[in-house]
Amino acid sequence: EPEVTQTPSHQVTQMGQEVILRCVPISNHLYFYWYRQILGQKVEFLVSFYNNEISEKSEIFDDQFSVERPDGSNFTLKIRSTKLEDSAMYFCASSDHSGNTIYFGEGSWLTVV
Amino acid sequence: EDQVTQSPEALRLQEGESSSLNCSYTVSGLRGLFWYRQDPGKGPEFLFTLYSAGEEKEKERLKATLTKKESFLHITAPKPEDSATYLCAVGGSSNTGKLIFGQGTTLQVKP
Fold first, then answer.
1. What does the CA dihedral A66, A32, A30, B62 come to, rounded to 10 degrees?
2. Coil, strand, or helix at residue B28?
3. Mean local confidence (pLDDT), B17-32
4. What is the pLDDT of residue A71?
5. Does B99 touch chain A (CB under 8 A)?
6. What is the C-alpha to C-alpha distance for residues B48 and B101, in angstroms, rounded to an integer?
7. What residues in A contact B94, CB-CB < 8 Å?
8. Closest-approach residue (CA) in chain A for B33
9. CA distances for A19 relative to A33, A41, A45, A81, B52, angstroms
10. CA–CA distance from A107 to each of A11, A24, A110, B12 (Å)?
């Protein structure tokens, strides 16, 4: 079964440092997403990306966050200057043109110290 | 504002003891109601998408149903390997694919 892959699985970073989380969506998918889950809380939407541009973003996705599809396979989330409250599990997801089935990766656990 | 509430928060069952999980939602224009399974430290694993009231879908011991205000995930004769957190999410009228998640129901099935 095709899957969304994410790297790294776990990253520890100092407050104020830049972090890039990487994702390889399912190959024929057209819609890409980032979600996050703070420990013990709900999964929260961050951003959706289609046709090389952001189609929707949440209030969480402020100027410190950016996304990019640098080539035909990777999809990245950059946090410019990390804060303690950015510590969370970050999930990448993708779906085909219908958007009817959204598949998630295993997540990247970010710890900001 | 789109909202999803799941109940109960936690459920303990004996192996073979059937039960149901509830997902109540309010959304302006339902594009789809999604069920996921999440194991500790893992990403949500897709189970079902339901689109309209009256629709039902089944997978092994799981059956999902949908009304205009709620969805139920029925678990028939559960086994210990069904232990996980079950997440409900709604896609609203925007065509961006954004999902709004509930807080989940953590199911523990004891042998």
1. 180
2. coil
3. 93
4. 85
5. yes
6. 14
7. 56
8. A100
9. 17, 22, 19, 8, 41
10. 11, 12, 9, 27
Count CA atoms closer than 13 A to A33's CA, side-chain side. 26
**Are the beta carbons of B96 and A48 separated by less than 8 Å?**
yes
Identify whether the C-beta of residue B100 lies closer than 8 Å to the C-beta of residue B28: no
CA distance A20 to chain B (A): 19
pLDDT confidence of residue B30: 87
Per-residue model confidence as pLDDT tens digits over B80-99: 999 999 999 999 877 778 99
Per-residue pLDDT in tens (0 to 9) along chain A, 113 residues: 779 999 999 999 999 999 999 999 999 899 999 999 999 999 999 999 998 999 999 999 999 999 999 887 899 999 999 999 999 999 999 998 887 889 999 999 999 99
For residue A8, say if its preceding peptide bond is cis, omega within 30 degrees of 0.
yes
State the amino acid at position A6 in one-letter form: Q
| Distance (Å, whole) CA A59 – CA B65 | 32
What pLDDT score was predicted for residue A99? 78
State the smallest CA–CA distance between residue A72 and chain B in angstroms.
Answer: 20
Contacts of B51 (CB under 8 A, 6+ apart): A100, B30, B31, B32, B33, B66
